[in-house]
Design brief:
The complex is a heterodimer. By secondary structure, chain A is of the alpha+beta class. Chain A has two domains: 4-80, Ubiquitin-like (UB roll), CATH 3.10.20; 89-151, [2Fe-2S]-binding domain (DNA polymerase, domain 1, Orthogonal Bundle), CATH 1.10.150. Helices cover 32% and strands 17% of the residues of chain A. In chain A, strands 2-1-5-3-4 form a five-stranded mixed β-sheet. Chain A is elongated and about 50 Å long. The relative contact order of chain A is 0.16. Chain B is an alpha+beta fold. In chain B, the strands form four sheets. A five-stranded antiparallel β-sheet of chain B has the order 4-5-10-6-7. The N and C termini of chain B lie far apart (60 Å). The chains are: A alpha+beta, B alpha+beta. Chain A binds chain B through residues 1-3, 5, 21-25, 44-47, 49, 52, 58-61, 63-66, 68-69, 112, 115-116, 129-131, 133-136, and chain B through 1-8, 18, 29, 32-33, 36-37, 39-41, 48-49, 51, 53, 78, 101-105, 107-108, 189-191.
């Protein structure tokens, strides 16, 4: 039983040691201690998905996970999805389809969409809807996002 | 979030001790998708949280045993929906697991946690009831096994006493030719809680079981061994279900709407279950 704990977080391929207060959510540590502000806090109840990151390759709501629970696990945030300043084909497709409006939901949306495509490279429209059901867009730009994902599921010419 | 202490036991015995605190101020943590919401909004204010994910006896294993399927307490819902054995033999449980929260939630939320959280609207519990699942519980004074029907007592209330932990959920193998189906109503398709949910199971001799959620203080089971539900006239067909329900009016739906929809979902799930079964109407 302790209020602090020494944890090792592997974030975007780099290991970080923290003496962390055990009640701090993973999202807070990512944003405030590591400066990775791509993942956002919004609903704090697991509905909006703005805080979505990958833990051991699976999408999770980082607002509903304690940093201590991520001890010794591999975390990938939106910042770690693409190397350097480059964009992924999915991100390019979002831009090309005008799928980004205010942008607040986009980091979480991209992480979820990339996970979907990595686990199912040719999803149907309903599988895309289901795969992104845990990510809300306050601007309501879902149709363009759906098209942006669909566009890169088509077989290459 | 308010401060609390955290422990990460690696054995059940350690966990029993930590969870036996007499003041009840210690909460068990599995996937955290319900607990963290409560911690964050202040609805739950424990002194300490005990993380159960590193206990070997609770390993996230879904295993076919002789005449049953065992689901370890740390198995997450995404494992259930991906399990070929469950998809083949318990499709209605998989259907119910597939509608819990979102992909992100299902990567973290456990079946045991959905049960232990004891929400009247827990999505997977009607299916566990219909399939006749048992809960294996271990605690300081040994092991016991209770049916899911006897496990949930009321809203947020189970038979678990201080120090006790659910280790496994055990589903008996359905008789060959059994069919089952799950349906629920929500306000929107995405992340939402059930207005009501129904799981119907029909076995090859025509015994019918309904598990109902969100229409009473706890999910409940209605069994009909004489196939009366199936063969009686439409008007009175689902009277037994409606009679046992006591739906409330809340932000999601009114009492009257829930009451009316019991019959609708019962009819739909019954038709789907019969379709999947080998039972033939006499």
């Amino acid at each position: 039983m302790s209020s602090r704990r020494l944890v090792t977080l592997s974030v975007n391929g780099r290991e970080h040691e923290f003496d962390v207060l055990v009640h701090r959510p993973l999202l807070e540590v990512l944003r405030e201690d590591l400066g990775l502000t791509g993942a956002k806090e919004c609903c704090a109840v697991g509905e909006c998905g703005a805080c979505t990151v990958l833990v051991d390759g699976l999408t999770v709501n980082s607002c509903l996970m304690l940093a201590v629970e991520a001890d010794n696990r591999q975390i990938t945030t939106i910042e770690g999805l693409t190397p350097g300043e480059s964009l992924s084909p999915l991100q390019d497709s979002f831009l090309a389809h005008g799928a980004v409006q205010c942008g607040f939901c986009i980091p979480g949306m991209i992480v979820s969409a990339q996970f979907l495509l990595d686990s199912n490279p040719s999803p149907t429209a309903s599988e895309i809807n289901e795969g992104l059901a845990g990510n809300l867009c306050r601007c309501g730009g879902y149709k363009r996002m759906l098209r942006a994902v669909e566009a890169i599921t088509e077989p290459e010419a | 979030m308010r401060a609390f202490d955290y422990a990460r036991p690696s054995t059940l015995v350690e966990a029993f001790e930590l969870l036996s605190a007499p003041d009840g101020g210690v909460k068990a943590l599995a996937g955290g998708t319900d607990l963290l919401v409560g911690l964050r909004n202040g609805a739950i204010r424990p002194r300490a949280v005990v993380d159960l994910k590193h206990i070997r006896e609770l390993a996230p294993v879904i295993r076919a045993d002789k005449e049953c399927m065992s689901i370890g307490a740390n198995a997450v819902l995404a494992q259930l929906t991906a399990s070929e054995g469950l998809r083949r033999d318990y499709p209605a449980l998989v259907e119910s697991a597939a509608v819990v929260g979102s992909v992100q939630i299902r990567h973290r939320a456990t079946l045991a946690g959905n049960l232990c959280n004891a929400s009247p609207a827990a999505d997977t519990v009607p299916a566990l009831l219909a399939y006749g699942a048992d809960v294996v519980i271990r605690g300081p004074s040994g092991e016991r096994r209770v049916s899911v029907d006897n496990f949930v007592l009321g809203p947020r209330e189970t038979v678990l006493t201080a120090g006790e932990i659910v280790t496994t959920i055990v589903l008996p193998t359905p008789k060959p030719g059994t069919g089952a189906a799950f349906a629920r109503l929500t306000r929107r398709r995405g992340v939402d809680l059930a207005i009501l949910s129904v799981c119907c199971l029909v076995d090859p001799e025509g015994e019918v079981r309904f598990g109902l959620g969100a229409v009473g203080p706890r999910p409940f089971l209605v069994r009909d061994s004489a196939a009366a539900v199936v063969s009686s006239t439409a008007a009175e067909q689902f009277a037994a279900l409606v009679a046992k329900a006591s739906p409330i009016t809340d932000v999601r739906a009114s009492h009257d709407y829930r009451q009316a929809m019991i019959t609708v979902l019962a009819r739909r799930t019954l038709a789907a279950a019969i379709e999947r079964s080998s039972w033939v109407s006499p």
